Amino acid sequence: xxxxxxxxxxxxxxxxxxxxxxxxxxxxxxxxxxxxxxxxxxxxxxxxxxxxxxxxxxxxxxxxxxxxxxxxxxxxxxxxxxxxxxxxxxxxxxxxxxxxxxxxxxxxxxxxxxxxxxxxxxxxxxxxxxxxxxxxxxxxxxxxxxxxxxxxxxxxxxxxxxxxxxxxxxxxxxxxxxxxxxxxxxxxxxxxxxxxxxxxxxxxxxxxxxxxxxxxxxxxxxxxxxxxxxxxxxxxxxxxxxxxxxxxxxxxxx
Length: 254
What we know:
- The chain has about 250 residues and is mainly α.
- It is about 65% helix and about 0% strand.
- It starts with 8 loop residues before the first helix and ends in a 47-residue tail after the last helix.
């Protein structure tokens, strides 16, 4: 049972103002472009002063990432809640899928989920925001590695595995984001499906032999090596000489 005290009237009013500024900023960013939107336009949309805006945000960049920060916090909490018996990569995979299943409720306390997804796409396609996003991801991955190290009972400064696992996971997530952004379906469902697909391919892709084998399991079709490869040598090679044992026995013996 949640026994946390309900925020007072003043705190609730401040939260409503902050949420209104975030929503106005994201709507303007996605409609008109991040670089083209000014703080003046954001505060005008909410009918507050610039002083009020800067009471909540250092600048419009911070407003652009406000909901993304909420989503990242939600994901970290999902990782912490994973059962301790799960291997690290499994825990990360299950946490991110669970996160997409529950993120809508968390996000919509601030903005519609559809607006959040449009903002995510904007971040991916705006160089200035993408640079910030990648820097933020480094910080998130460090925190994530710390969570994994705590789960596994290892010292991440002495044991590289937590950072390696998170770096691998982060690379897959970056590829997922790029593929999603280049597609035509920008829904949560599409992102979830793509995430699951890429993560499910991760372990087999790294654990299995990447060489393409022929049907007999012999030669490497890409390099032409192996016992069954056609190298032009060996007993069955075509060397350009007649190896037939048939001889001309009909010659005139006169």
